Every structure is written in structure tokens, then in C-alpha cells.
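INFO batch 0412 | record 1 of 1 | parsing
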Amino acid sequence: MQTTTAINLRYEERRGYIYHINRIIRSLRNDLGGVIGLFLFFSISITAIFAPSIAPYDPLQQNLRDSKLSPAFMEGGTWKHLFGTDKLGRDLFSRIVFGTRVSLLVGFFGVLIAASIGMFFGLIAGYMGGHVDNVIMGLTNLILALPYLLFVVFIASILGRSLLNVILIFGLTDAPLFIRLTRGEVLRLRESVYIHAALSLGAKMPRILFRHILLNLVGALITIATFEMSGMIFYEAGLGFLGLSVPPSVPSWGNMLSQGRDTLTTYPWIATFPGLAIMVTSLAMNLLGDWLRDFFDPHRH
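INFO prediction complete | emitting C-alpha cells
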């Protein structure tokens, strides 16, 4: 009897997995943007993971004899340096490949910190209400009222240049957005029938918050996290352009833009290729976010 029950449970779990996989496939069949976004995102992620194997050169290796070489497809270029070299003779393709790591680290961990803080305080504010809600939302609205870019630049100029500082800056400054989103969803869900049923059965607040409410927020949170990750990658590049992101020795797209701005008219490829990398990554995250928003929309299923 126990063996039969175990087999049935495994069968039901397998059916559940198959259902979700089929649902994803059906959704992607009708969404070319989602397919492109997923393909680009996985390609960028693989590039970041296997950067040492993909990059033909050390991104920090200097060779002044090869300074400012043209890309391979331009006159005077060579296939030894596909995207050309910068003013210090460093291979641009290798630097862009390694710069992928910085952008994804900032985007992923920045969103992870922001979402974790936002979910925690948003759940408490929405469920507790009263003075707790007023205090949390008062601070949240105060931060959201500040000009975002100026606020980020101000904090970055105080903390100094490091990858950890950049991640913390974006994680903390984006947390209020997740607080507001989570609180709004909690206010909507806490009056639901199944929440009242759980309360009548004696469920405690932590179980209601994390078991019943948070699970219903996952779709919305993943969607907004994807868009915010795109924004963080873009703003990190902006900080790098201003000289406020990672140290100059770290290959990042923002640093490369900053280093190429003085030669934009004479050697445009030095700034063009990192700019294209930022654009493609931002496009991938936004296409992925659009697909996830439609995928998690209950009115479409």
C-alpha cells in the first residue's frame, strides 16, 4: 500500500513538471520576443561563466605596439583582434567578454538584495498595517521621492569604487520599489478567502506570510526583478562612465565607455562595442521581462 502511494505521488509530481514545461513551450511558441530574450540571456550568461575559455587574451594584458588597432572587418584590422584594441593595446573582445561578468554580478546580486529586503519589509507592512505600515512606507516613499540617478551617484561618490559597493548601492536603493510592490500585493491578498480559511484553521502569521501570500507574489516579483536587473546593468555602466563604479583595473563596460569617450571621433570602436554590449543585454532582459509578465498573467491562461 505504501509503495503504491509513493509511486502515485511521484507520478503526480512528474505530471506537474510536465505540465509546467509544456506551458512554457506553448507560451514561447506564441512569443518571438520571449524566445529571443531567452536566447540572448543564456548566451550572455554562458559568456560570463566561461569567459576565461572564450576570451583569446588576458583582458589586462597591454601591448603598446598594438595600440588602437582597427576591428578585423575594417581597413588595417586583423583577425587576431576581432574588435580591435584600445589605446593601451588591450584586446577589446576579451575585455567585453570579461565585462559581462561585472554586469551580470551587479544585476543579479543587486536585484537579490533589493528583492530580499523589499519582500521582508513589504510583507510586514502590508500584513501588520497600522503604525508599522506607516513607518515603513513613510521611509519608503521618502527614498522613492529622491532623484534616483543623483541619489546613486551621491552614495557611490561617498563609498568609493568597488564591485561590492556598487552591488550594495543598487540593492539598497532599489529595495523601496520591491517594498511598495510587495505591500500592495499583500493588501490585495490578505482579504482573500483562502487567507481567512487559513486563519480559521489556526495558521500562524509566519506561515500565512511565507506559505500563502509570498508564493502568490513570486510571478510578479520575478517579472519586476528582470526589468530592474536591466536597469541596474544600465546604471552601472553610467557609473563606470562617470568613474564611480568598479576600479579602472577591472574590465567593465562602463569603464570601457569612459576610456573610449576621448577617442570617439578618431577610434570609435573603443566605445562602440561596449555600448552595443550594454544595449544587447538590456534588450535581452526587457524582452525576457515582457515574456515573464505575460506568462505569469492569470488572465492569459
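INFO post-check: The chain has two domains: 1-30, 31-300.
INFO record closed
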